[in-house]
Task: structure prediction
Amino acid sequence: MDFRPLDELERKQLTNALRGNAEQGRVLLLDRRDTSFAGSADEVPDEEVISAIRSVPCHY
Amino acid sequence: MGLLDSESGKRRLLCVEVPAIERYNEGRDPAFRIQVTRMGTALVLRYVLKPGHNRYSVETRLPSSYPIVPPETRVVTPLKHCPHLLEGQTLCLWRQGSTRETSRWDAARFTSVFAVLAAWRWLACYEIWHETGEWPLPEAK
Result:
């Protein structure tokens, strides 16, 4: 696979969102069509509840 | 409880797993929908995730003893060796002996779609690790 990296801003946004999810329970939002990262939020919009990541268990 | 050969397993599939997968697939581009196939006594969910700019083909296997035994997820797309990656590109996602509740798979609360979302989060971490060499989330005890 030809890996296409995130640019610096994208990487910062994704890192902050992942840490906010792990440490404060903030929600990770995924694009409905193609699962790309779509930001983070305090609450899950009703229509995105199946795509958003909040309480997914994981050991890290 | 056998997922495919017991009444309780079939009920779990029909009432919990299939509706969750159908809901996940709603409004999604066909290439990113979950496809379910039977492999012996197990079910395999095949899907594509794209947390950044790259697409990853992923498989989540629900063994016959699912949901008591957690699902197992592997990435089919070749990856660089990295933290939390086991043999066969299987993702290290749950730690059943952990004293921390969020480290364990809970059969009463989670569906196979949770495993899909956990794989997405793992791949998002991988995209960051690939560039920085640092896994962005600390490991739980």
Q: What stands out?
A: The mean pLDDT of chain B is 90.
